[in-house]
Amino acid sequence: MEEKAKENGIAAMAACYQKFDPAAYLQYNYTPPRADFARKDSIVPWKLACLHRAFTEGDVSGELLVDIGSGPTLYQVMSGCEVFNKLILTDFLEVNRQELSRWLQNEGGCSLDWTPYLEHVCKLEGKRPSAWQEKAGRLRHVISDILPVDVHCSQPLAPETLPLAGADCLVSCFCLESVSPDLPAFTRALGHIGKLLRPGGHLLLIGALGESYYFGGPGVRIPVVPLSEAQVCDSLKESGYTLIRLEVYTLPQDMHVGVDDVTGVFFAKAKKE
Ligand SMILES: C[S@@+](CC[C@H](N)C(=O)[O-])C[C@H]1O[C@@H](n2cnc3c(N)ncnc32)[C@H](O)[C@@H]1O
Ligand SMILES: O=S(=O)(c1ccc2c(c1)CN[C@@H](CF)C2)N1CCSCC1
C-alpha cells in the first residue's frame, strides 16, 4: 500500500478517537454483565487469571513493565505490579491519561471503582480480599509515568523514555486491533512496540477476535480489525516474537451487549527474539 494511503488510514483512526469517552467505555465493558465476578463463565476472572499466571509462572522478570494503550483501565497491571518495580502506563488520548492520573492521585473523581478487580487479583495471589488496599498502594508506588503513545510511529514513545536496553515486559490489551485501519497496520504496530522491548523480554497481548467495531462512547463507533487466532499467531511471528501460549475465550451470548460485535478474546504470551 502506498505511503499516502497508509497515512490516511491512520489519520482516519485518530479522528475516530477524538470523541472517545472514558467513562462510557468503562461502563460498557468493565461493569456487569461483562464484569461480573459472581459468574463462573465471566470473562473477568478468565482474563485476570491469564494475566496472573503469565506474570507469576517464573519466566517473566526485570525492572520495567510498560502498558501500551492503557486507556482508562488498570486491571491489566494489577498482577504485574507485584513483579516489577517500575511501571509506565501509556495512552494516545489525554482524557485517558487524565483518568489514570486521577486514580493515581487517589483524590476521587475516578469513573470506575477498581476495588472488585483488586480484590479478585488478591484472591488469585492467595491473599485475603481485604488486602486490596495494600495492592492499590503497591500499584500507586510502582507507576512512575503516564505517557503519550502512538503505536503507528516507528518509535511509539518519546525518545529517552526507556532505558537503552528497553522494557523487560510489555502488556497491551484491546489496543492494536482497535486503533489500526487494517491487518498490515496491526502487524506493523506489533513491530513498533516490539522495538520498546529488550531481546528476550515478554509481550502479554490481549485482544478481540472477530470484532469489526465497538462503541467508544454514545454514538462513537470505532472500526476494529477483525482478527482470527491464526492471524494473531502469524502477525506475532512476522513481527519478531516467539509465541509461548495462546488462550481463547468465547463470549457467552448474553455478553453481547450491543457495544461491539466481539466474538471472543485472545490472550497471547510471547517472547521477543
Ligand atoms: C479499546 S481501548 C483499550 C483500553 C484498555 N487497554 C483496555 O484493556 O480496555 C484502545 C485504546 O487505544 C488508544 N489508542 C488510540 N489510538 C492509539 C494509537 N495510535 N496508539 C496507541 N494507543 C492508541 C485509545 O486512546 C484507547 O485508550
Ligand atoms: O473482554 S471484555 O469483555 C472486553 C473488554 C474491552 C473490550 C472488549 C471486550 C471488546 N471491545 C474492545 C474494543 F477495543 C474493548 N472484558 C470486559 C470485562 S473485564 C475483562 C475484559
Automatic annotation (TrEMBL):
Pfam families: NNMT_PNMT_TEMT. SUPFAM superfamilies: S-adenosyl-L-methionine-dependent methyltransferases. One of its GO terms (molecular function) is phenylethanolamine N-methyltransferase activity. One of its GO terms (cellular component) is cytosol. GO terms for biological process: methylation. PROSITE patterns: SAM_MT_NNMT_PNMT_TEMT. It comes from the Eukaryota. Keywords: Methyltransferase, S-adenosyl-L-methionine, Transferase. InterPro entries: NNMT_TEMT_trans, SAM-dependent_MTases_sf. This is Phenylethanolamine N-methyltransferase. It comes from Crenichthys baileyi (White River springfish).
